[in-house]
């Protein structure tokens, strides 16, 4: 193919060729809708943002007293690889020896590679487990609340609902799709491990052509594809549960709730109905009540409820809704509403969590297992919910609750991070800056000079996927890709595996970590898992070298048979749910027994608490901090496509015309968004596609403070997490609430600071 080699990314399979200093990318020919994010890849080969040599922060290297306070503003010294590896090994030896593995936090977020072997999260966890263990995190920033509530209500996360409704079923059978929080097609550009074919657009278009009706419930009009002619209900952010309750009220009031389904397949409905109809608290959750909360008219609510009862209806709830205060509630209430309609398990009907959030959700399941690198056993019991990192570092020894457990934050002395950028994912970045000044040592493997690298003590340059061989494969995607190396490592960058192997060797653990295999031998070894399963099932099962030469392998998929939901509906006794009752738990005795005042035994509407009201009340605008369309999280923000979407080098923020006019803001003005936690600069885009009283600023711009030593800094690039609250959804999940915050905005006055975060780092001589 003219020198082009196969490769893969989280946003699509492709072919690449590097010659004459240029990297050329061609989407996989079988992909009907390749992602524009592929346009960010060529910058990997030459960007000044890449880390080219190991570097150590001067204050840490010199052992200055209180040197951690200079993290984020200190200068760096480049060192040789042997020097860097000795520093890391010696520091690990010291902390393990003095404080044990419970003093080491192993951070990672899993998105750094689409490969099955060079997967930073697997590599760092395997490495630290070989050394004796580490404090881990659980769940994700994207769906932390759902990952805790769904197992209580339906069974294991990512099993019942996300493996029961396919795009094929929607295209052939769904009559009404009610999308709470939307189904933004931009989000389906990506999936962990890669996508060989982007199928969401044609599937939705096919459903619409057949006559399916779409209702979008979101403050953003473009949270669903424009060609679907969706009815837009611009709800006030954070009020979807009130709207869902009022729809449920109408169903009961007109006798359209499915009592037979509720009796046979659920437990606890009568107790929920007492709350719904006001018998419990004296408040009927009727459309008039909900209208005053959510901003949707009572008649519209009544009409929608009747339509849902009269059609094959699919309810979807997005990631975004559960990334807010009491985020467990909309997911739980969406399940309850689908159960009241009695359509769970029907073709194209029922409920699906986060359909449209990732590119492979809604595809058929694979019929064979994928290669997986063993991480060994972690003997350390201590863990935190992933979004509680700042709490952990700032509050060692303090108690917290999580999913029925009373826990304490560990006392972390060393943070080791490989893969991921916490200064993208985390909230209240000024607070995170303070937290990152607490540990004695922070070590990171990074590909580029992100803020996470700039807050570390030892920075080790890691390769990107383009600089190594790997196997690309993802759940629900039927194509395995031979990810062939496209470019030589930039500077002195090395694979995470090689870095960990050399450190393990210095600590007497090389053989245990590597099992005496090279990277290439590991690829062949891991491939054998899938090859063996293919052969056992009677499918073509080439050996590794044949697969590698061909470049790809089609994998078999399971039938589109409705999955666990259809089986449960067909015979709930033979196919019970893995819940305490074996049924859908509308009321959970388990959750009620925890005694939490912010997550009770059934879904309900929670008013913002008095502390939140006091802190947020005088900031009049909601800010929606959603996923960008120009990159995956913060990855490759320095890429050409990501940069092309900025205005004057800053992130765009969308503002409704009425809100802009009130503040004298014009299109493309540089504006300052602010609240009590901090502020950021962004470029205004006046748009009717955001609800009045709402602004939208995507996450992922690399955080760049105007003053790295200031207690409260301003991000001059446009990272909205300088404004978001670092608070858990509830005591049940302790998940991220970063989707929404309250702010005000004004035209920026004064001399504009230059954005330099994407231009790399300068160094001092040792």
From TrEMBL:
CDD domains: MopB_CT_DMSOR-BSOR-TMAOR (cd02793), MopB_DMSOR-BSOR-TMAOR (cd02769). Belongs to the prokaryotic molybdopterin-containing oxidoreductase family. Residues 50-505 form the Molybdopterin oxidoreductase domain. This is Asp-tRNA(Asn)/Glu-tRNA(Gln) amidotransferase GatCAB subunit C. Residues 621-735 form the Molybdopterin dinucleotide-binding domain. Its cofactor is Mo-bis(molybdopterin guanine dinucleotide). The keyword Acyltransferase does not apply. Residues 7-46 form the Molybdopterin oxidoreductase N-terminal domain. GO terms for cellular component: outer membrane-bounded periplasmic space. It comes from Rhizobium chutanense. Keywords: Metal-binding, Molybdenum, Oxidoreductase, Periplasm, Transferase.
């Amino acid at each position: 193919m003219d020198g082009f080699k196969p490769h893969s990314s989280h946003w699509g399979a492709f072919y690449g060729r590097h010659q004459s200093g240029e990297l050329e990318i061609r989407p996989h020919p079988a992909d009907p809708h390749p992602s524009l994010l592929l346009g960010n890849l060529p910058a990997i080969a030459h960007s000044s943002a890449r880390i080219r040599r190991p570097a150590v922060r001067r204050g840490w290297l010199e052992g200055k007293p209180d040197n951690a306070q200079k993290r984020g503003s200190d200068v760096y010294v480049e060192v040789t690889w042997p020097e860097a590896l000795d520093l890391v090994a010696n520091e690990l030896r010291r902390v393990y020896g003095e404080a044990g593995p419970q003093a080491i936090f192993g951070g990672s977020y899993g998105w750094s590679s689409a490969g099955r072997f060079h997967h930073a999260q697997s590599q760092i966890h395997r490495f630290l487990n070989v050394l004796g263990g580490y404090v881990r995190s659980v769940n994700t920033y994207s769906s932390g609340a759902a990952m805790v509530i769904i197992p209580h209500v339906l069974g294991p996360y990512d099993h019942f609902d996300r493996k029961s409704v396919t795009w094929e079923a929607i295209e052939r059978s769904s009559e009404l799709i009610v999308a709470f929080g939307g189904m933004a097609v931009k989000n389906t550009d990506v999936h962990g491990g890669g996508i060989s074919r982007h199928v969401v657009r044609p599937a939705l278009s096919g459903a619409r052509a057949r006559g399916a009706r779409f209702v979008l419930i979101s403050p953003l009009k473009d949270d669903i594809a424009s060609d679907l002619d969706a009815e837009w209900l611009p709800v006030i952010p954070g009020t979807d549960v009130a709207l869902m309750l009022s729809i449920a009220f109408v169903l009961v009031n007109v006798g359209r709730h499915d009592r037979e389904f509720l009796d046979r397949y659920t437990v606890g409905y009568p107790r929920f109905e007492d709350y719904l109809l006001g018998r419990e608290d004296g408040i009927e959750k009727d459309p008039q009540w909900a209208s005053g909360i959510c901003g949707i008219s009572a008649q519209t609510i009544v009409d929608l409820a009747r339509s849902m009862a009269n059609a094959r209806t699919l309810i979807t709830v997005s990631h975004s809704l559960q990334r807010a205060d009491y985020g467990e509630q909309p997911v739980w209430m969406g399940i309850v509403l689908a159960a009241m309609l009695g359509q769970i398990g029907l073709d194209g009907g029922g409920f699906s969590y986060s359909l449209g959030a990732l590119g492979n959700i809604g595809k058929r399941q694979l019929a064979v297992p994928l290669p997986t690198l063993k991480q060994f056993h972690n003997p350390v019991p201590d863990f935190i919910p992933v979004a509680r990192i700042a709490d952990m570092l700032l509050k060692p020894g303090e108690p917290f609750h999580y999913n029925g457990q009373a826990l304490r934050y560990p006392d972390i002395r060393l943070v080791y991070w490989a893969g991921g950028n916490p200064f993208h994912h985390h909230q209240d970045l000024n607070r995170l800056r303070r937290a990152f000044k607490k540990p004695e040592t922070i070590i990171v493997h990074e590909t580029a000079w992100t803020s996470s690298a700039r807050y570390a003590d030892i920075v080790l340059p890691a390769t990107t996927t383009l600089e190594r061989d790997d196997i690309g494969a993802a759940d629900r995607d039927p194509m395995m890709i031979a990810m062939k190396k496209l470019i030589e490592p930039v500077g002195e960058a090395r694979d995470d595996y090689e870095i960990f192997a050399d450190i393990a060797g210095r600590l007497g653990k090389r053989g245990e970590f590597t099992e005496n295999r090279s990277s290439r031998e590991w690829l062949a070894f891991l491939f054998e898992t899938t090859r063996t399963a293919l052969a056992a099932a009677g499918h073509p099962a080439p050996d590794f070298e044949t697969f590698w030469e061909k470049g790809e392998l089609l994998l078999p998929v399971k039938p589109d048979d409705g999955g666990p939901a259809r089986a449960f509906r067909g015979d709930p006794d033979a196919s019970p749910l893995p819940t305490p009752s074996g049924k859908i738990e509308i009321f959970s005795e388990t959750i009620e027994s925890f005694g939490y005042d912010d997550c009770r035994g059934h879904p309900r509407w929670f008013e913002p608490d008095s502390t939140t009201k006091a802190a947020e009340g005088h900031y009049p605008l909601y800010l929606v901090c959603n996923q960008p369309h120009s990159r995956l999280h913060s990855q490759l923000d320095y890429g050409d496509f990501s940069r092309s979407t900025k205005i004057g080098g800053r992130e765009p923020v969308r503002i409704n015309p009425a809100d802009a006019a009130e503040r004298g803001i014009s299109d493309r003005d540089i504006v300052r968004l602010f609240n009590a936690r901090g502020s950021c600069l962004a470029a205004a885009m006046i748009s009717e596609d955001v609800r009045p009283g709402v602004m939208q600023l995507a996450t992922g711009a690399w955080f760049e403070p105007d003053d790295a030593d200031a207690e409260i800094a301003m991000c001059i690039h446009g990272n909205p997490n300088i404004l978001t609250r670092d608070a858990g959804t509830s005591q049940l999940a302790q998940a991220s609430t970063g989707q929404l915050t309250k702010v005000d905005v004004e035209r920026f006055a004064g001399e504009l600071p230059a954005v330099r975060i994407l231009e790399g780092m300068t160094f001092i001589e040792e």
